[in-house]
């Protein structure tokens, strides 16, 4: 089943059950605390918090989501996109646990000819919160999921709150078992790559007070009105229904991989590191296009910085795959062709999206070219002196002067049969970070320099410090 069809069936299923279909909100909301919309419920928060009266008791949507937290997983796990579509159904003080569970079950397991997804009920596992016997009873006694396929999980996995005083409650998650060839028996608690999480049902039933952490707070008592918030991953369902190996090989993402094969001359499926690069290109090209469509421009901090990193990662991955010409325009064009049926803005605004993406590619390719020359010079002199290690100062100069990422230096060094004094490099990075912290003037100058990696240093840790460089474990922020 095609991804566009999976979306459509979700909305139809819930509209039939008296939900109002609400369009996706933009990825960018006017909220400085939220980098990107990362869940379907975000646009409904004022209703859940009781700050606004919802105009409908039930709603359904397919929300565009971007999760920067998952960037490191892209291409490596089977199931994490940076951009994905979260389909959801919401009840504002209307139906609760029983109906939420039954609606989800019927969509997942109804036959394809009856408007459902046709999942084999025998391969579905569910989780409930530790003490949520009510949900367990509904799953077991009313839906008929055997107790052996119901697992209880703790606060971290199966209890939801927004991290602030307000509504909170247990969740119940639905998983699909891909089968013994993908891991050992034991349910999602044991293996989340064999058992793929499809859908999270959140039962907002309590009010939480202040707490010491996201997973440790006081529950004050029941909410006057109970709410339902659910999120189903459209790409995950596509992955499972299309019989492919991961979310990057589905109908809307795989065509970018095919384009990258064509431009690079390499084959997907032949080499693990290359495969990661193919998947990164396909995932990031889509995310970048969607972000630009919603008004983000490459920049040196916040949202713009995320976009810049995504675009540069595409460029570098393509280069590492051996593509010798600019390829951004072609990747973005494939994204438009696959995604525009659900997101027409990709078509209507294509000129702008293309200009922004290609502009960043052009600038970064220049950086790579000048850095490569310097690298080759350094490598030659190391070899000429009979050594095999590129010094920390040289790696640092490449990074500092040319914005040349350390993992690219590592990769190129390995290709040349050399190693890099990473420890020395990191020591110099730490020194520079300290200097920059101490010196506000230095920070100003650094911002005038267009090397994004340098700016990141000068700004100190940001919320993206977990953003690893592709393939290599090394990353500039370590
Ligand atoms: P996971 O444990 O697999 O990282 P999650 O528990 O973080 O997923 P939720 O926050 O519960 O995910 O989001 C609801 C649903 O959205 C998930 O059940 C999944 O189907 C989907 N989803 C979450 N993150 C991603 C992602 N990075 N790419 C694709 N789909 C996702
Ligand atoms: Mg997650
Ligand atoms: Mg999860
Ligand atoms: Mg979840």
How is this fold's topology laid out?
Elements: H1 3-16, E1 20-21, H2 45-48, E2 58-66, E3 83-92, H3 97-109, E4 124-129, H4 133-143, E5 150-153, H5 155-158, E6 159-161, E7 166-177, E8 195-213, E9 216-233, H6 234-241, H7 254-264, H8 272-293, H9 302-320, H10 328-339, H11 345-348, H12 350-384, E10 389-390, H13 392-402, H14 406-415, E11 419-420, H15 422-438, H16 440-448, H17 452-459
Parallel strand pairs: 1-2, 4-5, 10-11
Antiparallel strand pairs: 2-3, 3-9, 4-7, 6-7, 7-8, 8-9
Helix pairs in contact: 3-4, 7-8, 7-10, 8-9, 8-10, 8-12, 9-12, 10-12, 12-13, 13-15, 15-16, 16-17
The structure holds adenosine-5'-triphosphate (ATP) and magnesium ion (MG) (3 copies).
Number of DSSP helices?
A: 17
Distinct ligands, ions and cofactors found in the model: adenosine-5'-triphosphate, magnesium ion
Give the helix proportion (percent range).
40-55%
Order of helices and strands: HEHEEHEHEHEEEEHHHHHHHEHHEHHH
Q: CATH superfamily assignment of the largest domain?
A: Bira Bifunctional Protein, Domain 2
**What value does the average pLDDT take?**
89
- Morphology call: globular
Main beta sheet: 9 strands, mixed
What is the CATH topology classification name of the largest domain? BirA Bifunctional Protein, domain 2
Q: Tell me what portion of residues adopts beta-strand conformation.
A: 15-25%
How many strands in all? 11
Low-confidence stretches: 442-478
Terminal CA distance reads 42 Å
Radius of gyration: 24 Å
Provide a brief overview of the structure.
The chain is an alpha/beta fold and 478 residues long. The protein has 17 helices and eleven strands.
